[in-house]
Amino acid sequence: MQATCELNYARFLRVLPDCDTQHLAFEFTIGTHLSYRITLTETARYTTTLMVEQHNASTPDYLKPSMQVRLYHDARMAEVISSQNTGAFAPSYTYPNRNMRQRNEKQMVNQFLGEWLQFCLKHQPTVTSEA
Length: 131
Known about the structure:
The protein is α+β, with helices and mostly antiparallel strands. The protein has helices at residues 2-15, 105-122, and strands at 25-30, 34-43, 47-54, 66-72, 77-83, 126-130. It has a 6-stranded antiparallel sheet with strand order 5-4-3-2-1-6. The longest helix is centred in the C-terminal third of the chain and has 18 residues, at 105-122. The protein is globular and about 45 Å long.
């Protein structure tokens, strides 16, 4: 889990040109159909909180990835703290559970973030606007 979070931090630094200015937003596209927005929602001395969302008019909302990510600058780690508006993740879950989460749900969403960032880096996104 730590290795995944450390890799995700390094990948975020390569994707975002600036990640320490509060209320900054980046919109970028990959190809002709994928549009994303990363919004810096909170900055502090050692942390930055980001909202990562996909924006495609033709895709239903439940299929669009949306996650809140916290960058820990002192530890050089990036961790998903909320995904698809589900709230905070526990380190692990018993199974079955009331919300039907997988035993390693936290690890899986952080792995998804890493795969998404790797996809972005591979396809060299074009930043279309900085709000």
